[in-house]
Amino acid sequence: MCPALTEDIMSFRKATIAAITEISPDCKQYIIELNEGTFTGEAGQHTALQTDSGVKPYSILGVDEARIGLMLRAYGTDGVADYMDTQSVGDVVQVKQELTGNLTLQQTDRPAVFVGTGTGITPLIGLLQAYITGGGPQAVFMFGEKTQDQLLYKSLLEQYELTSSVETRFSLSREEWHGHTGYIQEQLPDAVETVGQNADYYVCGVPAAVVAAKDRLDELAVPSDRVHTEGWEDAQVA
Ligand SMILES: Cc1cc2nc3c(=O)[nH]c(=O)nc-3n(C[C@H](O)[C@H](O)[C@H](O)COP(=O)(O)OP(=O)(O)OC[C@H]3O[C@@H](n4cnc5c(N)ncnc54)[C@H](O)[C@@H]3O)c2cc1C
Asked: For 3-96, CATH number?
């Protein structure tokens, strides 16, 4: 067996599902607690779940020693997310203990913009929380989805808007409503005008949207070292 594979297998640990909450018609939030030990890593990073249906990476909503929060969309494909969809509180799953990934909080002494689509909102929720806790002065949280029933964590974000210096912008691409319509990256010129080119821009989500947002930020003269992405654009996610 090659060393990398051995290391991967070794790093999966048993963990118990402590809570499950429905977030949208096809998305659920899971609080997972390691049976032994603690997670290593920080907000914005990802773990992986190993199931009979395969191994897939999942960003964390947050981490607190032995516990992490995950949010998964089930596609009805019998994949890992569908396996998790059949699980109940108290069931045991295999999870990677070391959190990895480059999408981590940069500085909290300058404005920050979070741009998410679909399940790409997951690491951004954790990063926003860390930014607020760190005393960040001004945040814009932008989230794009197809329809209103998929506006994940809308009420939580509205609560942040009430209590912290966070402005939220939602946009729907497939439904008319009272708010913005169209792809979320179309709202970027407004956001850049509000917080400036020197803010940190955290982008995560549907691959095409991440690429489009990066291109738009480039056109808007945001330096590339201020644009932070997870790299989901290389993976097949929706
Ligand atoms: C770094 C990273 C972090 C990630 N974090 C998250 C996360 O926080 N939450 C999350 O849900 N996912 C996340 N993903 C995606 C995740 O890893 C899996 O790709 C996803 O859960 C699908 O895997 P699966 O085994 O359930 O489905 P699979 O059996 O692989 O099939 C699902 C695939 O079908 C395609 N599909 C798209 N739309 C539909 C549809 N309407 N119906 C059916 N199939 C469709 C998608 O391309 C999807 O990959 C992340 C991916 C990466 C690379």
From this structure: 2.40.30.10
